[in-house]
Amino acid sequence: MADKGWELYYHPLAGRGEFVRLLFEESGVPFTEINDDMRSKIMEGSFQLSNTPVICKYLGKKFGLYPENEEDEWHAEQVNATVHDYIAEGRLAFHGRNPVESYYTQKQETAPYIARFVAERLPRWLKYFERVLRENNGGQGFVVGSKLTYVDLGLFHVLRATESQFPEAWKENSKNIPLLHGFKKRIEERPNIAGYLKSDRWRGFEGNRMADDGWQLYYWPLAGRGEFVRLLFEESGVPYTEINENIREKIIQGEMSGYPVFAPPLIKKGSFQLSNTPVICKYLGKKFGLYPDNEEDEWHAEQVNAIVHDYLGEGCLSFHGINPMASHKSQKEETQPYIKRFVTERLPRWLKYFERVLKENNGGEGFVVGNKLTYVDLGLFHILRTTEAQFPEAWKENAGNIPLLIAFKKRIENRPKLVAYLKSDRWRGFEGNSMMGNMPSYVTLFTPKNNLQRSQ
User: Fold this and answer.
1) Distance CA 442, CA 437 (A)
2) What sequence ranges are listed for the domain GST N-terminal (predicted)?
């Protein structure tokens, strides 16, 4: 069997994975990055290895980025360990109250930890690295010896992370670290590194912790259209922070900066943000490896993705038949004919269509397109669950016509990460009074600001 080559498993962000990427990129060694596994490791064939400092040393040796004598070897290992200690301490400053909790949940409380790190610890670390450089050929070359080694790339990464994360502190300390400035510029200009940093493979720094805090999802505290997005994060194992506060002010009233947003959900990472649920689903599917493998399947997936969202939109509007901008409760009696017509005339047609879509691909025994899970499978799964929860009687009445959909729903529901998610308190639940989920929160969408704040 052909060797698959190197694989890097890491979150789709800079973080500690960046130490490893730099080694592959500088060496010109091809690798595949897999972002749907929470474990940080490298693999080649049956061999796998984790722990970032160990990976760096191992790949350095493998790729010829290794010291040439024993003394340099040990000094490189010392600096390698210290580099990783530095980034760990800097990152923990952003998680001072709870190291396993998101920075956003403790942002205010961690401010003193961050201030102390910047004022007291950061200058000491930088001065140490400056001394390390000076010790070898007066700081005009590399960390050890006369050639690039793995520890040079590690030091380069933490210097870039420091400048990006703490630009003011970097400027304030500049006069004390002239050798580090020169070193950083030299590594930055190496052809392979320069090419990498200009490519879309470079993940960027987000500016909220030294290891990057990843994705943010802005949405109401309910299932609704946000659920399409949550399922993609949850199935991919990609960390994200959900922000439910002040959605009206930030998005509906247009107070949020960045690329214009009409309505939630919104995803954000660094300076990049994106809205419109079908577009978000396609984008994250591509980012997270939940994307078709050929062009024909890609277009069919996009077709079904659009129709999935058309279905949810039509179903939701039947609950708002008098006024689409008003709550269902305010027009509950008047909308009954709209809901009845949707359930008796439209819903069966939609379900039969999705049944035909499944049957078209391998007789309906697998996925919507191709032979692997894609973003459109998760979208279809969500609307099937929504339909069953919202219209249990209609679901039973139509069951005889949709055996493939029922089996598909069960298969997706049994995927380990989704099982865990649907049992967790992150799953918002269906309330049974709208296809959007938790209606009591949703009705605050167009009510006065003080009502919105009370509902949270």
Assistant:
1) 8
2) 4-67, 213-292
